[in-house]
């Protein structure tokens, strides 16, 4: 089991930047991957980005080139730096983790709201 706690959400104007953090209750190196998902009002939850314990990253097309995921193993924390934000990035952002390469993202945080005003 692992508990994930997100922080850093808020309100920002379009074109601005915001950073999110995901603190894990145990070593993130023991997890295969930690990632971010988001859910906008009236829409399904969608994948944003993940980073593996080997440092491999993967992004969804809508955020590629604007968002950067990183990790600090010593702090058991994963970050999501969001630049050039757009109103369509408005959503609740969730941190998620999977234990192994073949498992699903089974561990979830409570979410943090990101609102981008136009």
pLDDT < 50 runs, ≥5 residues: none
SSE order in H/E notation?
EEEEEEEEEEE
Helix content: under 10%
**Alpha-carbon Rg, integer:** 13 Å
Oligomer: single chain
Shape: globular
Q: Strand tally, please?
A: 11
Roughly what fraction of the amino acids lie in strands?
Answer: over 45%
How many helices? The count is 0
Calculate the terminal CA-CA distance, rounded to whole Å.
40 Å
| Averaged pLDDT | 96
Structural class: mainly beta
Biggest sheet overview: 7 strands, mixed
Q: Summed up, what is this model?
A:
With 118 residues, this protein is mainly β.
Architecture overview:
It is globular, with a radius of gyration of 13 Å. Strands 2, 4, 5, 6, 9, 10 and 11 form a seven-stranded mixed sheet that branches. A four-stranded antiparallel sheet has the order 1-3-8-7, with no helix packed on it. With 118 residues, the protein is mainly beta. The chain has strands at residues 4-7, 10-13, 18-24, 33-39, 46-52, 57-59, 67-72, 77-82, 91-98, 107-108, 112-117. It contains no helices and eleven strands. The model has no long low-confidence stretch (mean pLDDT 96).
